[in-house]
Amino acid sequence: MKACSYLFFVLTFAFVSCKLNQTDTTKTAVENPKSLSIKLVNGKWFNGNTFENKTVWVRKGILNFSKNETENDTIIDLKGMYVIPPFAEAHNHNLESDYKLEERIDAYLSNGVFYVKMLSSIKKRIDPLMHHYNKPEGIDISLAHAPLTGSGGHPIALRKRFLGYGRFDGLFNSLEEIESHGYFVIDDLDDLEKKWGEVLSFEPDFIKIMILYSEEYEKRKNDTTYFGNKGLNPELVPEIVKRAHQNNLRVSAHVETANDFRVAVNAGIDEIAHLPEIDNGKQLSREDAILAKNKGTVVTTTISLVSKKQDEPNYEELVENIKSNLKILNSEGVTIAIGSDMYNDNSVGEFQFLYDLGIFSNVELLKMWCENSAETIFPNRKIGFLKEGYEASFLVLNSDPLKSIKGINNSIVLKVKQGIVLNK
């Protein structure tokens, strides 16, 4: 038997991501048949609540907790260190262009972030970059491509601004050319019927929709002063969700207000892409939080965006409102995932912001970042947990995060993804 410690091996293996999941029996683990066999001894493994001393084997990139006496290629002595699932970024847009791409990928991997959810992207722009993603030695991404919005809605103004900056040179010459690539305008059921096939033709991993200021939909829909600050007709949302689910696609909703949150949850949205109400100080209702819990709706935080308003006089009020809404969601048992929506950052900063609020326990923060975030990105894959038959992707820490979780990224001493030890 060949014994060694902390080997670095580079293998390639493509995976096919799945769409929906309900239980472990409907999930699949992506095997890596070229992976060497590994035996990990003297490690403390996170079981979702605490750490347990275990010997663990890796076969074909899959975790095996059963006693196995077959020959191993590699033995790693963890020397009493702590093993957790990898981190995830449940909301970003920063892997679509080749600008500083290697730097961004390295930042994710070096911080132990293996999974990233891209809440919108232009397929023509990201397709040439896909060789960087979804392989054992890289990060895995899930894509929505063009979101569904109403006329003049978000993100049309954003796309227009980027067009003016020259960011779409070589791809599009006008805003009209961007439609269906950068957004779909859906104003009524007839639009939905006509364009749904094209939406599916882009082969998204999930559907992204825009619900903005739904309580003022009639006021805003034909008023050009609200260009970029409106979204879908809220009455269309249930039908969109129905069609998506019929095609085994989850739906993620951008929301701004408590009413948007209510519309989304009542329609059966799978994921709320932002914690709402960072600007107008209104709270989520406890009744809506309970409904979100009962329907299994995931809420992604993106609260560090408020840091851009630090110089505004109501900044402290905004932070208190964030804390209040998070407390409501957490007390009712709503699943909370960590995502930043920070183009020049990743979920590390978001995690730190959540920690600094002082409203979650260490185990809650760990589960939000490792378990909840991974599951909402790849709900049909066996990731995010250290269980029998799950993918052998994990981080080894030199300190107990349940005792001290601040600066957890600095305690990473080993990163393994699908049975490969990473050197990032």
Q: How is this structure best described in words?
A:
The chain is of the alpha/beta class and 424 residues long. It contains twelve helices and 18 strands. The chain starts with 37 loop residues before the first strand and ends with a strand. The model is unreliable at 1-22 (pLDDT under 50).
Mean pLDDT: 92
Biggest sheet, open or closed, and with what strands and sense? Answer: 8 strands, mixed
Strand element count: 18
Order of helices and strands: EEEEEEHEHEEHHEHEHHEHEHEHEHHEEE
Beta-strand level of the residues, as a percent range?
15-25%
Low-confidence stretches: 1-22
Concise structural overview:
The chain is 28% helix and 18% strand. The chain is of the alpha/beta class. Helix 7 crosses helix 8 (258-267) and helix 8 packs parallel to helix 9.
Question: Topology of this protein?
Answer:
Layout: E1 38-46, E2 51-59, E3 62-64, E4 74-77, E5 82-84, E6 87-92, H1 101-110, E7 113-118, H2 123-126, E8 140-143, E9 148-149, H3 156-165, H4 175-178, E10 184-185, H5 189-201, E11 207-211, H6 217-220, H7 237-246, E12 251-255, H8 258-267, E13 271-272, H9 286-295, E14 298-300, H10 315-331, E15 335-337, H11 347-357, H12 362-377, E16 394-397, E17 412-417, E18 420-421
Parallel strand pairs: 1-4, 1-5, 6-7, 7-8, 9-10, 11-12, 12-13, 13-14, 14-15
Antiparallel strand pairs: 1-2, 2-3, 5-16, 16-17, 17-18
